Amino acid sequence: MNQMFDRRRFLIGTGLAGIALAAPAIVRAANRRLIIVSNPGLENATLNALMDRQGYFRQFDVEAEIIELPGATGPFDAILAGQGDVCMVSGYNLVLARIAQGAPVRIIGAGMRKVALALYTRTPDIRGLADLPGRTIAVGPELGLLHMLTAELLKQHGLDPARVTFLDKGSNDQAYQAVVQGEADACCSSISHLHDADDLTLLDGGKLWEGLPRYTFQTAYAAQSALRDKPEVLTAALAAYGALYDYLMSPAARDAFFDARRQAQKTFDAASALAVWEFNQNERPYTRDLTIGDDRIDDLQQVLIGAGALEDRQPVAAVADMSCARAAARLFSTAR
Q: 201 - beta bridge partners?
């Protein structure tokens, strides 16, 4: 079976929703074809390019089309609209809240497990988290990932998030630039800035992967219809991503990783590429076994409840389905 890899922008009205009206043979083919949606950000684009380069879809006999959509909610909204089957690498922190509201979607596994974010400052008298009350912290929108996780980190250290001013700068990079330009005292931004030459320093206690060790940074989620109609191809795709993550964290992947990042980035930034490479090697934020335990699903829900984005904890069986991830772990093991 041939791999299909089409990194194109999503267009409403592509006609995918009408596939059920096609001839039976075409419908059967469609049930083997997986539409994978993701954000077009640099980290995701790098993973997409590396997946294509290494041929893991071919290895696991997956006919996949990757569609990139802008915005934090873009991939989720596309799945709701019937224009995608699964999102594998784009973290969206409100997935569980929207499932609780009735969205026919389930969490099916993990992408990046560790939080690849950090708190930075260039203000000399801010050294650690305890120095943040009364200051301005650049993040993204209210209840977005940067805002929610920064507030959760403060709470974990006994600090009241209400005592800081959160400045919505939109994105990771814009939050970082707000500190560079003197608009904010600190920011929550990507680990890709760890080697930037902007005189920003990492706060003591500002490594979110250490401060929030049980928070799953990126969850993979799929339409319930895909779980029902395409379990075999979903399983194969999860195994392919397990292989990708296993390779990505190995020293053997260095050249391929940097080449994929050059392909994904218009103007290659060697410092950011090195920061991400070192994080992947040292912190090992991924795993080839994509299953998520019930306790970690509950942890995600508790963060949402604490932020006011979710009223009550839902039964894990009502929001997550690890059957394909468990099968993928077995498939990956037999394929090695």
A: 121
82 is written with which tokens? 């019937």
Query: Residues 169, 269, 174, CA angle at the centre, nearest 5°?
Result: 5
pTM of structure: 0.88
Q: How many CB atoms lie within 10 A of CB 169?
A: 22
Question: Rounded to an integer, what distance in angstroms lies between the CA atom of residue 71 and that of residue 284?
Answer: 27
Question: What whole-number distance in Å separates Cα of residue 151 and Cα of residue 169?
Answer: 16
Read off the pLDDT band of 41 (50, 70, 90): confident
Per-residue pLDDT, 3: 40
Reported residue count of the chain is: 336
Whether the per-residue pLDDT at 225 is higher than 90: the answer is yes
CA dist., res. 206 & res. 161, Å (int): 15
Residue linked to tokens 């096609």: 22
* Coil vs helix vs strand at 144: coil
**DSSP SS3 for 219:** strand
A 10 A CB-CB count for 41 gives 20
Give the strand pairing for 165-168 and 136-139. parallel
Q: pLDDT tens, 226-250? A: 999 999 999 999 999 999 999 999 9
Output the CA–CA distances (angstroms, integers) from residue 150 to 59, 104, 161, 231, in the order listed.
39, 29, 8, 36
Alpha helices in the chain (DSSP H): 24-30, 42-54, 56-59, 74-80, 95-100, 145-156, 172-180, 208-211, 224-229, 231-248, 254-264, 270-283, 294-307, 316-319, 323-335
Mean pLDDT for 207-225 is 97
**Cβ–Cβ contacts within 10 Å for residue 270, how many?**
11
Q: How much is the CA Rg of the chain, to the nearest whole Å?
A: 20
Q: Which of 262, 120, 279 is nearest to 197 (CA)?
A: 120
Buried b (16+ CB within 10 A) or exposed e, 281-319: eebebbbbbbbbeeebbebbbebbeebebbeeebebeeb
